[in-house]
Amino acid sequence: MSAVEVTGLVKSFGRTKALDGLDLRVETGEVHGFLGPNGAGKTTTIRILLGLMRSDGGSARLLGGDPWAGATTLHRRLAYVPGDVTLWPNLSGGEVIDLLGRLRGGVDRRRRDELLERFDLDPRKKARTYSKGNRQKVALVAALSADVELLVLDEPTSGLDPLMEEVFREVVREERQTGDRTVLLSSHILSEVEALCDRVTIVRAGRTVETGTLAGLRHLTRTTITAELAGPVDGLATLPGVHGLRTDDRRVIFDVDSDALDPALRKLVGIGVRSLTSRPPTLEELFLRQYRKEPTA
Amino acid sequence: MTGTWQLLRLVLRRDRVLLPLWAVILGLLPALYVSSFRELFPTTKDLQVYADLSRANAGFVGLYGPLDGASLGEIVAWRSGFLPVVVGLFSLLTVIRHTRANEEAGRTDLLGAGVTGRHAGLAAALAATLGANALLALVIASTLLAQGMPAPGSVLLALQYALAGAVFAGVGAVAAQAGQTARTARFLAVGGLATAYVLRLAGDVSALGNSSLAWLSWLSPVGWLHRTFPYGQNAWWPALLALALTAVLLAAAAVLQARRDVGAGLLAPRLGPATAAPSLRGPLGLAWRLHRGVLAGWVLGFALLGLVFGGVAQSVAALTTDNAGLARVFERMGGASAISDSFLASVLGLMGIFAAAFAVQAALRARDEEETGHAELVLATRTGRLRWLGSHVLFAGAGPAAALLAGGLTCGLMAGDAGGVLAGAAVQVPAAATLGAVAVLMIGALPRQAPAAWGVVAACFLLMLAGAVLGLDQWVLDLSPFTHTPHLPGGEARATPLVALSLVAVLLATAGVAAFRRRDVPAG
Asked: How far apart are the CA of B360 and the nearest CA of chain A, in angstroms?
């Protein structure tokens, strides 16, 4: 059974169409990256999944139930970190963590204290005095210390410094190893998704443009080759599937489609190769390529 | 101080409506008192009777300060004796808003990185505030002179206001250095103002009895200003005391600012508990934490209001038997036979409106929680919408009831009619709850327009104050729930309107909650 099943989701705010037929499927036990630029509809999708908003069309199932009608029962089984965490200014961080834990049905004190330590958070400070990063930590500690099946994290590392981002990744990796938790992680930080997720769904303007494993998505994309050759470069530019060729004496750099890799390499070997590096595309490049394209009407 | 002029222009740009409006409206009040007292007390004998009664009444003296002579000017100056506190409050809030609140929001960093001196922000905020106070003084003096009042008293009265503003602008400036957050700064400065007021009140009331604590008034800058006695003794030297205190406070603020970093304060924010108390368990526990401060404030405020008005009620009867004009005013306000009952009933009606404002404020807290994103955190747990909104609605209903009972109790004890006054306060609860329920309905059905519930309270207030005087049709008056509330003590106690109003309140609130359960959060 899938933890999240969304098909053809539609949601409008007045004249703005926030979701325009969005699909999302998160399998139980996986860490799923939900990737898209700001305004793509990630937060709206999550709010519909949490029963905070009602969709105008399409269907959404969460943990096998209806997210709107079954909200309170389903919420026992999940924990949520909103994208923009605001806390009650006159409550201390520790009070907020305990309150949210109790509202979810209980606090695992040992886990809570361990996470506080790892995230280096002082729970006695009033929320009013926390920086954005520290507010984020409060919500993360509260969510990660909950004993739930599903974690819904909306851009969870915004505002965290790199050190704390690494701690966050460690914790999520540990969760993945224990294997009984599903994580839906929305992000526009590509390296984070690359480092943590099993599968990725890329959305733009309220629609899903790509979904699959990172390896699967890379099949659709190009490899960047840098090579130093024995002889003059000849005939490479005319090969199908080779893009953006730049030559500097006997050094070449070019991108090549995955299915044109074989003839291109044969050509290089024919000239004679002194050195060669190939690099798979970063998610960054994949992402940019995907979004440079106009959405199909 | 470099850049003060530019920052001053920024302050004036931000407050271009508020400052002049405030100076003009407040500035017109003393002149309005002159014309209304001329009408109420046309002869010297009338004035003398009113003054004799007033200066012996603990409630009046507590509220307005000591009254010395019995001339029209002296009575006007005395009767506007609460206004310096209002001027002080406005001044300290303005200074903090343009200093510490800026700093907390990070705007000071933005400006500090430009070509502005360390003290420029504080200097600009003070210049604007003192300027507004000068404008206020100008309005007061000129309108009083235009009413044909003697010049020295008019100028001194205007100066009294301006100096109250200056002293508490200084208090605000010091507090803005001490507290690290605008909230702390406001707390400190308002605390200073309240202390000054209470010291004066205690000292002046003590002076009516055995005078053992009369010296307390001399610890308070508000007390000094009252002792200028404009139009009577015209004593200028207490004004000099206030001027000297202002100078000391401003110097202290400058020194403190020079010795600290931007963003830092003398008082570090206090730490809270590392774990939540067992009571902070569910939505109700959370609502208690969110509402309890405001609730305590209103209950205390109502209790104090009750004390003052209860004290005043004692001598109202005596006062009005000699004055047909004043008696007519009270009759118009509430209309029962016995004057002091009539007075108490109108005071309780006023409290009812205040309680309605509290109800609306408490209900709209739920909307604040939604807009700030706090509601989302709670509603993503197993807390249902009914329980979440219900926890706030509970405080919107029970809070005003508690405040009304506190006010009714103290007022009744002071007036010597505890049972009757308490009943008069209790009958206000359904009407106040009805206006709170209007806010709940708005939150559910028209969340973006929810603050309009304040307009409904204001409209009911206007109908209560001026409806009968303006000769409006009965159906217009009937729109306000307070029109249907029995006038107690003295009036006829009828259960039907109370039951009907309670039903309306429950229906409106239920409709609001039902609408809330069907809509998006946050409202799209």
From this structure: 21
